[in-house]
What we know:
The complex is a heterodimer. Chain A is an alpha/beta fold. Chain A folds into two domains: 9-287, 3-Layer(aba) Sandwich (Rossmann fold), CATH 3.40.50; 293-344. In chain A, 35% of the residues lie in helices and 21% in strands. Chain A has helices at residues 24-34, 68-80, 103-109, 112-119, 172-175, 192-202, 238-249, 257-265, 293-298, 300-324, 326-339, and strands spanning 12-17, 46-50, 85-90, 93-94, 100-101, 122-125, 131-134, 143-146, 154-164, 168-170, 207-217, 225-235, 274-277. In chain A, strand 9 (154-164) and strand 10 form a beta hairpin. In chain A, helix 1 (24-34) packs across helix 2 and helix 2 (68-80) runs parallel beside helix 4. Chain A starts with 11 loop residues before the first strand and ends in a 5-residue tail after the last helix. Mean pLDDT of chain A is 86; it is low at 1-7. By secondary structure, chain B is α/β, with parallel strands linked by helices. Chain B is 35% helix and 25% strand. Chain B has ten helices and 14 strands. In chain B, helix 4 links the parallel strand 4 (68-71) and strand 5 (91-95). In chain B, helix 5 packs antiparallel against helix 10.
Amino acid sequence: MGFPEMSSPQRKVSAVRVEDHAQLASGFRLGLQQLPGLLPKTLPRQVVIKPNLCDISPWETGVTTDPRWVCVVAAELRAIRPDVEIRLVESDAISAYKTYRSCEETFDRLGFAAAACEAGVELVNLSRSDAIEIRLDGIPQPVRIPQLLLEEMYFVSIANLKLHGYTRMTGILKNSMGLLTDAEISSLHPYLSILISRLHKLCSPDLCILDGRVGLEGGGPIIGRPVPTNTLLIGNDALSVDEASCRLMGIPPKQVAHLRQAAKDLERRLGKCEIVGDLRPRTFVFDDLRSHPAVQSKFGNRRRHQRMESISNRWIDRAYRFRDDPLTFAKEAIPKLLGGRRGR
Amino acid sequence: MGDRLKLGVVGAGAVLERYHIAAINAVPEVVRTIVIDADADRARRVAERYNFPKWSTDVAALVRQADLAVVLVPNGLHASVSCELLGQGIHVLCEKPMARNVDECLTMIDAARRGNAQLCIGHNRRFQQHMKLAKRLLAKGLIGDIVGVQAEEGSIHDWPRSPAYFDPVLSGGGALLDVGIHAIDLIRWFAGEFDRIEYQGNGTATTVESDAKLSFSLANGAKGSVAASHTRGLSQKLTLIGSEGFLEIGLWYPHVGIRSAKGKAFQNFYRLDAAVPRRPPLDGSFVDQLRNLVAAVRGELEVLVNGYEGMAAVEVVRRAYTGQAEPSMRNIKS
């Protein structure tokens, strides 16, 4: 059982140490030099950059993307094609406090509006752009995606190094969830790993930048403690970059449901990515959300809701694995049951 | 004129009950006043059932009662009824096809001009959400230049029909005029004017065709065909083939299949299927169509399918029936 693995340069990930935040541009350039071919020789006219702006915490907390990336990436891309039209996209969000937050507010408060102005980049609120509802295999309800995805473009995904309460970790693959134009997507949570994998198929990034200068451990993805990991991961393949980020955080990639799902959909095996450069793994501490005082005080009902979703996610994931390959599932499950080991 | 437009209906048959009543209910800017039908029993029954305060068998009664009329009579009466109303300043929403021939269409346009009234033709599909989506995607150049068009619509018809429906003189035509004209109108809207056409149908001098096929080229050089039938179930879809992809548009179902060769989303998917939800009532296009006319009457919008647009579709059908392959030199918009 399994798929033949081929050594592909696209699956390599460039890892660079960036000790000084002011050296972001040089660090990025070094990462590109370490793995020639990461940037294409020609670009389409349209480039779309998707940062991770899931909250209004500043980038130093490890929660959101550093706005300086806008200028850094724009400069590199314009060196390839000066007349390239760069758009930075994000959607409106429902915050953890269940309050609605417009994307424009996020752009403004996190400094992206100023950075975009400086770099000549257009800011696009996907929730207010033309959208289209499509059906994705394995998702029972239609999902709304921006019509932008139907057009020709070069897609850059910039994500953060974070733990996540539902999915264990976030990264490049999970960052694509922000492409959904609806702010309220909690109804899709039970299908999260399938949805993330399908979205990756729908809009796989051409350039993946995982900014691990400041990681986030704890409950994630917006609650936790910043961890200075001082590492940039750059690659063309989202799954490989996410695998590398798992290594950096000390998480076995196979424990992450959406990575397993994406690997399966791409007919690949996890744990095969090759890292070029300097990667110094450490272990991110995953908090039990129940002990967090903020959670205790503000997320009483939400915690129970999240717990139920987490449990249902796990069982749905197991059901899918059992349906698709009962033999392998049984082989994995029986020793765990006999040994009394927990899956997570 | 008060805030709400007084609306009358001419023709109380199945089309009113199946489609237009739901639309009239959903547009608060109109208030129903009178229903007219040649069959007094039917007019009375429909008036009672759908809360029209008055009913009559005489179209002239509507002129005194309404600002706006929905004309749902057999094809052969479209022109005479509409002209009577338009000439007296009543705005008209006339079901498709606009009329049996171009001369009747011109009479209607002239009557609207004389009466200073709005004339809207019921090519309702232009108002369907998925058609609007397809139009927007085309405008973005998603599939490049249109090089081919295929449309198929047909089913075994199960409607209550009067004998006039099957009479070529009274109805003006069969499957192509009744069903195919929807596709013809949409093709004109999406891809431009028809150029050379070639028609095949099984109509005779005494009965209209039940199956029709129209092969054509468009002014932009694209080639295509329209198949319409009253005896066979066809695929009920319109496919626009472009130089860089295609759009497959459901004629009965709110569905758009998309393929754009260069599009990011199509690197791993051959095609994507857009799901366009229908909102109640079942087909919101009739609501939007009536709203469009109301807005035009109030001077807020242009009528989307005006008399010239309706006439252009009729002209294509007339050319098919008369074997006129090349378009006439007459500029119908002048």
